[in-house]
Amino acid sequence: MLSNKSAAPFLLTGFLGLEVVHNWISIPFFFIYSSILFWNGTLLFLIWNDYSLHEPMYYFLAVLAGTDLGMTLTTMPTVMSVLLLEQREITQGACFTQSYFIHTLAIVESGVLLAMAYDRFIAIRTPLRYNSILTNSRVMKIGLGLVLRGFVSIAPPILTLYWFPYCHSHVLSHAFCLHQDVMKLACADITFNRLYSVVLVALTFFLGALVIVLSYVLILKTVLGIASGEERAKALNTCVSHISCVLVFYVTVIGLTFIHRFKKYAPHVAHITMSYVYFLFPPFMNPIIYSIKTKQIQRSILPLLSGHSRTSAIVTKS
What we know:
Pfam families: 7tm_4. It is found in: Cell membrane; Membrane. Belongs to the G-protein coupled receptor 1 family. The protein is built from 12 helices and 2 strands; from the N terminus they run αβααβααααααααα. The chain is mostly helical. A two-stranded antiparallel sheet has the order 1-2.
């Protein structure tokens, strides 16, 4: 009897108490997911095809866009299934796999933001050595290292989920699987999972944030030493997009951390909504920020849009 319940599928949860309007809630979710796929896909297309964007800064941006696409494609199927079809069941294997990719991509994203801070640090502190330091091969090694760090570091706690018996409730609190949700349903000692998660978050998110802050302190020190006010403004302007993305990412991380910490005092809807903000807001905002703040990307987008306009005009005339 225990083994049958242990192997039973998990049940995902949408917005408790708002099930009757799940179909309406799915509309903004579908719009956000579609926008994330379109804008991040467009960024990847531009960086791949426009040789003026074949620079370290844009290579890192491509990894960021790919990570955001991956996060969207990982969570979108179950979220839309719950909201549109009320399809709540998910097998344990599928749940653990989804959890693995969600947490892996979150770690990769924090690492990419750190690498982009390093890129800006080198570009402003030692501009004459920028191309010799950040060569294509070195950028590829950094990108590969960030991806491997994410995929390897999250493996231990996820693998243990396969070994745990699950004899408690199988109801999860989100429309996707998170490690912290699943481990609480286990009838086993989860001390390793708890401690490992705390150490991993400290070494990736918080240490990464500290290094980013330190790098910008040094960048600001360098910029203030530039005599020309115009050159100072130009140097700082190259950092605006990255700083904005860092703020978007870490503000949502901090918000989610506070909601988890004080969830006894926060309504359930606020807790769930903040979780969705954490997973959807950065992928939604990152390409918009870079499209608005980066002139080279704007110059690449305009021919693409004008090309579409010309094609539409030809089709209309014919």
